[in-house]
Design goal:
Elements: E1 8-14, E2 17-23, E3 35-43, E4 46-56, H1 58-66, H2 73-93, H3 103-111, H4 122-135, H5 142-158, H6 171-183, E5 185-186, E6 192-193, H7 198-217, H8 251-263, H9 274-290, H10 296-300, H11 306-310, E7 315-319, E8 332-336, H12 339-348, H13 360-363, H14 369-393, H15 403-416, H16 421-427, H17 446-453, H18 467-471, H19 475-488
Antiparallel strand pairs: 1-2, 2-3, 3-4, 5-6, 7-8
Helix pairs in contact: 4-5, 4-7, 5-7, 8-9, 9-12, 9-14, 9-15
Length: 489
């Protein structure tokens, strides 16, 4: 009796799907002696076959399946087939965990092609991420969704000629998008699409990479070459964020801006009402700077909380929006109210009232995250435009600062003033490792915070010392001067 030949190399079962490597003998031709080797996926007695390379006779395939000796050439082929089994096993384990598998979903992840029944796609998952960020926690992460949406719009705009379906997104498509952002392209209306700045291009690419990684986490794109790498040739290199170390105003210039605010010495040539609007914008910029460099979105939602009254109106406490929910202390920030900051509050802030907004003019009653974002974005533009005009028309500077310069200036100027880094990090709500004890003990008492933040402006400059002054000094005065110089180093 002839020995039965093996036509299937058993694979695995993942949920309700059974996978095996088989010799596909489904042929009506009588003269066929060799058959293709395929991966077979079976769900509910329905099977899907996918060619994986190689063709053999029944005898040869059976020998490959049963070979045991590692030195045999057939063993190498068996090892190749077993590696394919492991690859598909990983692929199906990661495909929509917690849900039943379908042959259409299996076909899509194996071939990287969309089917009529399949609802998910690369673009679809991108849009899903945007939707989730906008709606989760009552829109608390609405702002985070914007870079994803901007990147998706760019992706669609520059690749409008490409009919991208399902997960048919190759490295060539990403490179075409990159080339379009670098060199520009022709849009669907025949007009020229302008090149994109390196910083924006980097942001767009990072959002795309996050979407790509999410697709792979769900089991898609596993067979598609990963397109991103700054080290490997032939991959898409994501531009690093540009250095912004020079985007700050030193203490001397910040002091000059503060004096402009105090003295209100704006040009008479400005249109009626513009001086008042510029004054308010300058005040907000200085509030950001003196308020630990906090962003305007936090300025807009700052309130006269109970903490403000508990400290006898000497400090604000809020939770930084950007790090809220991501840091151990919830992004808590304490802002000491120095004399210059109090002067600005007295001029442009609303009267203190428990839980009332400090600067209600910014939001004008907006409560939904979308509307808040719109109002803050508009006010940011106002602050920048009016600040640039003050720098040009009043101080005759050529710099063009924006609201973000306030944050950079706070960190840079305190660093240059010799303030310890841990205070700056804490004041800016940068993430730090904390013990349970840290949650209950204030690391920097309010008096120390006020002392440090008072270094942000130089309102009492030391008079210049002449040679005659030094000649007329007593030994005690000379010693005191030397001690002051040592302390300032």
């Amino acid at each position: 009796m002839a020995k039965k030949l093996t036509t299937s190399l058993t694979g695995f079962k993942e949920r309700q799907c059974t996978m095996a490597i088989v010799l596909d003998i489904r042929s009506n031709r009588k003269d066929v002696t060799e058959y293709s080797v395929k991966a077979r996926f079976t769900i509910d007695r329905r099977s899907y076959y996918y060619p994986i390379g190689g063709s053999y006779s029944k005898q040869e395939f059976s020998e490959i399946c049963n070979v045991q000796k590692s030195k045999s050439p057939k063993y190498e082929e068996k090892k190749r087939l077993l590696d394919i089994v492991d690859k598909y096993k990983t692929m199906l384990i990661n495909l929509n965990p917690g849900h039943e598998l379908t042959l259409d979903a299996v076909r899509m992840v194996v071939e990287g092609k969309v089917t009529r029944e399949t609802k998910e796609s690369f673009i679809g998952i991108w849009e899903e991420i945007i939707h989730n960020l906008r709606t989760e926690n009552n829109g608390a992460r609405y702002t985070t969704a914007e870079p994803y949406e901007t990147a998706l719009n760019s992706f669609k705009r520059f690749l409008w000629k490409e009919d991208i379906k399902g997960f048919e997104v190759s490295i060539e498509y990403i490179k075409k998008w990159e080339d379009g952002m670098i060199n520009g392209a022709i849009g669907p209306d025949g007009k020229k699409l302008k090149p994109v700045k390196s910083t924006t291009r980097g942001i767009n690419m990072r959002q795309c990479r996050a979407v790509w990684n999410e697709c792979r986490r769900r089991g898609y794109l596993l067979q598609t070459e990963y397109p991103f790498s700054n080290a490997k040739k032939g991959k898409v290199s994501i531009p690093a964020p540009s250095s912004r170390k020079d985007e700050y105003l030193d203490i001397a210039r910040m002091t000059e801006l503060y004096q402009v605010f105090v003295n209100k010495n704006y040009p008479d040539t400005w249109k009626k009402g513009y001086a008042e609007r510029a004054h308010y914008a300058l005040g907000l910029f200085l509030v950001q700077y003196l308020g630990n460099g906090f962003n305007l979105v936090d300025v807009a939602q700052l309130t006269y909380s109970q903490y403000y009254f508990d400290t006898e109106r000497r400090a604000f406490k809020f939770y930084r929006k950007k790090t809220r929910g991501r840091s151990k202390n919830g992004g808590e920030v304490i802002i000491p109210i120095t004399e210059p900051l109090q002067h600005i509050l007295d001029d442009i802030a609303a009267p203190p009232k428990l839980n009332a907004l400090v600067f209600p003019h910014i939001l004008e009653g907006a409560t939904h995250e979308r509307d808040i974002r719109k109002r803050v974005s508009g006010e940011n533009s106002n602050v920048q435009d009016r600040l640039i005009k003050i720098c040009k028309d009043v101080l005759h500077w050529e710099v063009r600062p924006s609201g973000t310069w306030a944050r950079h200036s706070f960190a840079t100027n305190l660093t240059h003033a010799g303030v310890e880094r841990s205070y700056i990090d804490e004041g800016m709500a940068h993430s730090q490792g904390q013990s349970v004890t840290d949650l209950y003990i204030a690391k920097y008492p309010l008096e120390k915070q006020i002392e440090y933040n008072s270094k942000l402006l130089n309102l009492n400059p030391t008079p210049a010392i002449t040679k005659d002054d030094i000649k007329n000094m007593s030994k005690e005065e000379m010693a005191n001067l030397l001690m002051e110089l040592i302390e300032k180093r």
